[in-house]
Write a structure and sequence with these properties.
The chain is an alpha/beta fold. It contains 15 helices and 27 strands.
Length: 545
């Protein structure tokens, strides 16, 4: 069954009901409307930009996109890229591409011109839909692109080298195109995060998208009455596949531009959101804003909020314990996944297993998981090995990269994730670290995530990242980069005193105070930190400073 069938079903069953809401506090004032006067947050932000579409309009818009592509000669299996910030046009364009039989290729909004050009070529893209935020970057490479593909500009004041999306799509038919699409057909290419160089193109089938939708609805018991708040970027499998729970249940979702504590809680209260997926920094910011009095919760318009879940990175147990003290009625879940496994959920904690906070959980709905050694053999419980997963969401391949595909995807269907983990006696999987992030110091393996989780329990630490830096005697040693909570002070001596709660060999030898860079999906950008501090340390060693 192709994923587009769910949209058509929702159009028939729930056509007049709202499917998507866009909220954007950053749009200029003459397009704003008023918040409801809930006074949840003081002072209340009274205006915001809001749009919505019903399921029937959503489906009609997707049909117009599909028919536009077909009229331009786009055939089944050709590639169409999307370079947009989260907006109401994003998902109809995505589903329009799928309805035409083409393959959707979402692009990271942080890509530079060179990265955009690289990914478009790697994926053999024939059409690019892009928004006003990317005019400069696309202009830099337009002289190459315009002869290779169709460029559709989704915004006002269309550049002269592109086609006006709104003009062309409004003239296309809103009737569903007669294109036969099956579950085995290729559906989408998502790009890896590119932490080891330029990103790889990950090819998925419609059946993988359907597996994700069923799994999300199952894991979180999503019903037609739920309202999902979507904050992370839709180009990423995390946000998209969590939204698939709304698609599967025919329920409403809210696309929020902005991730401040005030914007998140105001959206939850005003829109009646019941399910919210947060990244670790956003959850941390909400708790800090409540603790320091910037947000007052005396008037509770959050009673309908039933589930908060986190993914995309290791979750500190101390953060969730703190969250549940403030929101004791919340269900909590964490989801583990990677783009190669169609995003989150191949392993998940489960709302009924909150006592296991810290673990990433057990195999997800219709998934298998095991911990293996270098030879691919399952290791005994309690021992550290590489996490491998198997299920209907595993990628087809890295597009045009058979060597990289062979490295992580076996002929038996098991996908090696590159994450080091262990399994406890109850069958719960605990993430230890990325294989490439393990620090080998004097022959001893250090797992940064374990050290980070310990240090985040310090009340003065907002965020921490542990990396390996070069050392002449030990090869490398652990360095902790620490971001201190706003308004607090923390000394190196205090950090070292706190770290005495860890075994001596795990304690970071180097303490650095700095901001922690994170990408749009919340992951710490450790390559950035390694490059910065490895170079600085080498310079210090050479100059004797």
């Amino acid at each position: 069954m192709p994923i587009v069938d769910l949209l058509e079903r929702n159009s028939k069953l729930y056509g007049d009901e709202v499917a998507l809401v866009e909220i954007n506090p950053e749009i200029h004032e003459d397009r704003h409307v008023f918040w409801k006067e809930y006074e949840l947050i003081q002072p209340t932000s009274k205006t915001f930009y809001r749009r919505e579409i019903t399921w029937s309009v959503f489906d009609e818009k997707a049909n117009r996109v599909a028919n536009l592509l077909l009229s331009k000669g786009i055939q089944k299996g050709q590639k169409c890229a999307i370079l947009l910030m989260n907006c109401l046009e994003w998902l109809p364009i995505y589903f329009g591409i799928l309805k035409s039989g083409a393959i959707a290729v979402p692009l990271n909004f942080r890509y530079t011109s060179d990265e955009i050009d690289y990914c478009l070529k790697l994926a053999d893209v024939d059409v690019l839909f892009y928004g006003p935020e990317f005019i400069g970057r696309v202009e830099d490479i337009a002289y190459k692109l315009k002869d290779q593909m169709l460029l559709y500009f989704v915004g006002d004041s269309c550049p002269n080298y592109a086609e006006d999306y709104y003009k062309h799509v409004s003239n296309a038919s809103s009737v569903a195109p007669k294109v036969l699409i099956e579950g085995a057909d290729h559906a989408a290419i998502y790009f890896s995060s590119g932490t080891t160089g330029f990103p790889k193109a990950i090819l998925h089938r419609h059946s993988a998208l359907m597996q994700s939708a069923r799994m999300e609805a199952h894991h979180h018991e999503t019903t037609h009455d739920d309202v999902f708040l979507c904050i992370p970027p839709l180009y990423h499998t995390g946000a998209k596949m969590h939204w698939f729970g709304s698609l599967y249940s025919g329920s409403r979702a809210v696309l929020l531009k902005g991730n401040t504590p005030e914007a998140i809680l105001q959206a939850v209260s005003t829109e009646g959101c019941t399910i919210v997926w947060l990244l670790v920094p956003w959850a941390q910011d909400i708790l800090d804003a409540i603790d320091d009095g910037r947000i007052q919760l005396e008037r509770k318009y959050l009673d309908q909020w039933r589930l908060m879940h986190i993914g995309a990175q290791p979750v500190p147990p101390s953060l969730i314990k703190r969250w549940l003290k403030i929101f004791p009625k919340h269900q909590y879940d964490t989801n583990y996944g990677l783009s190669e496994s169609i995003g989150p959920g191949c392993v998940h904690l489960g709302v009924e297993n909150v006592e296991k906070v810290g673990a990433i959980g057990i195999p997800g709905y219709h998934w298998e998981a095991k911990i293996v050694n270098e030879a691919g053999e399952t290791v005994p419980k309690g021992e550290v090995g590489e996490l491998a997963v198997k299920g209907g969401g595993v990628m087809v391949c890295y597009y045009k990269n058979p060597e990289a595909t062979k490295e992580i995807l076996g002929a038996d269907g098991w996908l090696r994730t590159g994450d080091m983990a262990r399994c406890d006696e109850d069958g719960f999987i605990w993430l230890v670290d990325r294989k490439k992030d393990v620090i080998i110091t004097g022959g001893e393996n250090l797992y940064p995530v374990e050290i980070e989780n310990f240090m985040r329990a310090n009340d003065k630490i907002k965020d921490v990242a542990v990396i390996g830096v070069p050392d002449e005697r030990l090869g490398e040693i652990a360095a902790a980069i620490i971001e201190v909570k706003e308004g607090m002070t923390l000394t190196e001596e205090e950090v070292r005193d706190f770290n005495r709660g860890m075994p001596r060999y795990k304690r970071p030898r180097v303490i650095i105070f700095d901001k922690i860079p994170r990408n749009p999906t919340g992951k710490i950008e450790k390559p950035v930190l390694r490059k910065k501090y490895s170079v600085e340390r080498l310079v210090e060693a050479e100059t004797g400073r």
